[in-house]
Please model this.
Amino acid sequence: MKNKLNIFITGVMLFLSGCQTPDDLIPSTAKNGINSISAYFTDADGNILDENNGKFTATVTEGNYDIVIPVSYYYPASSDNQVTQDMLTKMRISANLDDNVNMSPSLLYLDLSSGKTHTFTVVDQMKRVHEYTIRGEIVKSKACAIEEFNLPGFSISGIINETTKTISLVSAEDLSSQLAEFKLSPHATISPDPSTTTLNYNEDRTFTVTAHDGTTEATYTVKKSMPDKIASGIRPGSARILFAKKLIADLGAPANNHGGIAATQDYVVISTRDNQNIVINAKTGALLSPLNVSVTGGGLNNMYSTADDAGHILICNLAQNAGTFKVWKLNSLQGTPELFIDWAANTTFAMGRKFSVQGNIDGDAIITAPLHNGTGAQFARWRVAGGVLQSQIPDIVTVGGLTWTTNVDVVSTSATDVNADYFVARYSDHIAGENGNVYSMLNWVNGNNNTVRKSLVNVNSNFVSNAVAYTVFNKIPYALVNYLNGFTWGQADMIYLVNAASLDSFTADYNSWGGPWGAGGAVEWACELHRYGAINGAGIANGNSTGDVAFVQSADGFFLYVYFMFTNGYIVCVQFDCLDM
Model:
């Protein structure tokens, strides 16, 4: 459209001028004629060294005939390499001139080192003649911007509005006593320094950024932004991996002997079958001081760990063949494990490879532990009310229509109702009564009659499912289950996050999931995570095909954290949210 308009205007002008002799084309308002001068570092052959980072420009203002080209004090600007006068002796020069403006002599190279001045003549569009001088000067930067601002403890990246000099921290977390990470304009400084001073970001914080020249300043205000929630459930597309740590190489976990995780809002405890359990930061995966659990006796007495909704750590032993099943509890990392459950089962079956707790053991909770007897499907169930374990002797529940071996996990959907529904993740291993050589990896069981309401995904018995977690996030219940093959490959590992709001939403097809953050059927989120399995983690097959999963919610209910672990592979944290944004 612009080209057509120009042609039209040109045609009208020719029609009006007729056969008159045209005058010189002179604009109604003349400009300076010369707009800017740029200089570039050159190599030994006179070629421009770096056209992007090694360009220095002086803008010409009306009435100013002394042009000073500012050359960065450091080159590149972000480095600590100080520019010397020798580097300025042969600078490549270019000029930005208006149309019909002449400059002499022609520019090519100039010596801009200290004390050197060059004079040029410019004839502008009005035929006026001006004398300009050009010289160079090494100057410190006036740039004083905050380019990035993050709270690593919560993996929050600030949203920077450079116009208003505000930085928004979109979070509903408690942001008191936080250290920040930031990126400034090169060689600028910030006060106070948020990387060394813990600050309360629940309140507005003001920072002054001073440029390298020591005088130019900018003031930024960091504000905590409290977003609304979407109507229900997880915000689509919000999944992001906060960390992925190799269990053996990064965290020092013993090969094969790490099968359970206890995840809390602040830290995650990884069982080791030793006298000390590994502890990492819940948001960054950074290694923390280990947890001393020697009071349990270590070894198979430190078989598996989990956590309740209030962040209490629970540790169980592996009770084999008429052994006593024990569960220890800790209120904090500084505490000492206290014996909580001590049940002399006096049976021939084993238990303790997995157990789950729904609720808060200082309030109301239901604890479930599968029994491993090789046939059938049974689990033990304890109830805690008002912070008191109601009995050391559990109820024994038999699930109709299912079978499992040693790979199984059971979690209740209620902290108070023993008749509430529950979920079972299990491995059947060609047991009679199953569908040939396939089995259902996750089962939704009716808590009133202990029969299966619906099963999720029939998988080949070469693959193992043995960990399940349950939570209600932003009004929607979710189940989390693992799926892996560690016998030989350790490369077929996957996690499913399933919407359990209804039997209709409880569905997925492991053959048609939609990619790393995609969905198969109505599955909420499925991730093919073989890159986090045993082979890629340590090159050691996960011979026991073990792993674990866990949910943790932020105290305000805005964020859902999914933790999963594949033995000999990785432990990974994925963050979801329900922010309306």
Summary: The chain has two helices and 42 strands. The domain at 31-139 is CATH 2.60.40.2340 (Immunoglobulin-like). The two ends are 38 Å apart (CA to CA). The CA atoms of residues 170 and 225 lie 5 Å apart.
